[in-house]
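Appendix C: a fully annotated inverse folding record. The material below is reproduced so that readers can follow the format used throughout the book. The structure is listed first as tokens, followed by the designed sequence.
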């Protein structure tokens, strides 16, 4: 069992395993979660020979994510720049969903269902009213409803609901369907999957990496060595391993991404299969100071989440976490406790110092970041894929993503043409 304070380790290659460079690519993506997969797919679509290193592509935090596309209802004070990126991502989602469905032959569970944030007591109501004023000042579309109007919209809500905010522009997708579609799209686009953990970043000066051993400190990223001993050479490397992105050996300290794991526990229940829908849209509230949300899927699944726990690498599902989620959800929707509980889970969100993603080139030529998305990884997948594809093909970060450049916590990236030297190494 992993210690809660120690990042997961990789199993080293067996002694005597072959260590020849097995393949060379334009791009190697380290990490096969939603962000890594969307980056690989978009790079391959633009003609780059692309590989992904991950022992189980499609796994990671997406398997326990709720899939809320909540640019407006997830608004937090002081995150106006992130709001602009989230809104751009929400606007991109319909075309992204259509493109991915066509490329993969799979549905991603995208629903334009809207969201409802409600207040359960007078203090919650005052706080929600204040948030509504903030949303209005930013020009966001959110409608205030009385408690009775909330219950007419969602009859299963508790009688004590004091009011709420209706946001028709916040939608949802199913992260498990999304990742399955991205894996299929990558395969169709010719992406190669190396089903092993990346153990170490390779630099151009590493022995066998195509450079002189003495040049490593001033070199460039040149791919990765995997836990099974395979050496993968690449002109450009994208570090997209979620909360584990900061732990890859061989990454110079000056460009190591400052990401941390933030645990979230989630429950999955089964809604009735006949009659009126249990819930028609995402419903969320703050109960005893903790946020709780309920996300109904067309499949009949109801996702309830999520805790937010700073416990290092611990992914234990706890009795306390399950109890708190069910208790708070019951206050919001009393009939919920009659539903079958079919799954519990815990995952690790990749948090950054400002809770926003780190995107694009680092100060080390050939190394890019796509990590730190925290609670918005599913929402930001389309714009992340677009942004990384732009820089991987020699362009700049798009305007919406520029405030989230990978270098904002460290040294500036070298000039763009240096980043793309050796792209076809």
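Designed amino acids, in order:
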């Amino acid at each position: 069992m992993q210690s809660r304070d120690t990042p997961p380790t990789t199993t080293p290659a067996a002694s005597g395993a072959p260590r020849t460079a097995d393949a060379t690519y334009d791009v190697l993506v380290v990490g096969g979660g939603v962000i890594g997969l969307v980056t690989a797919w978009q790079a391959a679509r633009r003609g780059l020979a692309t590989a992904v290193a991950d022992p189980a592509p499609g796994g990671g935090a997406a398997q326990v994510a709720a899939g809320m596309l909540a640019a407006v209802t997830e608004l937090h004070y002081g995150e106006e720049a992130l709001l602009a990126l989230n809104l751009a991502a929400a606007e991109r989602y319909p075309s992204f969903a259509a493109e991915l469905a066509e490329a993969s032959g799979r549905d991603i569970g995208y629903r334009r269902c809207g969201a409802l944030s409600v207040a359960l007591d007078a203090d919650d109501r005052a706080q929600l009213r204040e948030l509504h004023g903030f949303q209005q000042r930013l020009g966001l579309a959110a409608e205030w409803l009385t408690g009775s109007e909330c219950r007419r919209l969602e009859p299963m809500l508790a009688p004590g609901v004091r009011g709420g905010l209706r946001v028709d522009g916040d939608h949802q997708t199913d992260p498990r369907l999304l990742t399955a579609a991205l894996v299929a799209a990558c395969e169709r686009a010719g992406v190669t999957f190396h089903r092993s953990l990346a153990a170490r970043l390779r630099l151009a000066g590493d022995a066998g990496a195509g450079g002189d051993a003495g040049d490593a400190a001033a070199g460039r990223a040149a791919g990765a060595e995997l836990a099974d001993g395979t050496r993968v050479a690449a002109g450009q490397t994208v570090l997209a391993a979620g909360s584990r992105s900061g732990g890859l050996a061989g990454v110079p300290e000056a460009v190591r991404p400052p990401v941390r794991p933030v645990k979230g526990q989630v429950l999955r229940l089964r809604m009735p299969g006949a009659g009126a829908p249990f819930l028609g849209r995402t419903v969320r509230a703050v109960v005893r100071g903790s946020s709780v949300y309920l996300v109904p899927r067309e499949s009949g699944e109801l996702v309830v989440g999520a805790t937010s726990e700073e416990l290092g690498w611990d992914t234990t599902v706890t009795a306390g976490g399950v109890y708190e989620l069910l208790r708070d959800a019951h206050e919001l929707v009393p009939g919920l406790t009659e539903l079958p509980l079919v799954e519990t889970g815990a995952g690790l969100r990749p948090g950054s110092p400002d809770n926003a993603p780190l995107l694009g080139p680092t100060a080390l030529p050939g190394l890019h970041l796509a990590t730190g998305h925290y609670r918005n990884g599913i929402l930001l997948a389309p714009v992340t894929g677009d942004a990384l594809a732009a820089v991987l093909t020699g362009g700049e970060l798009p305007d919406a993503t520029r405030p989230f450049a990978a270098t904002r916590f460290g040294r500036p990236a070298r000039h763009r043409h240096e980043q793309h030297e050796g792209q076809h190494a």
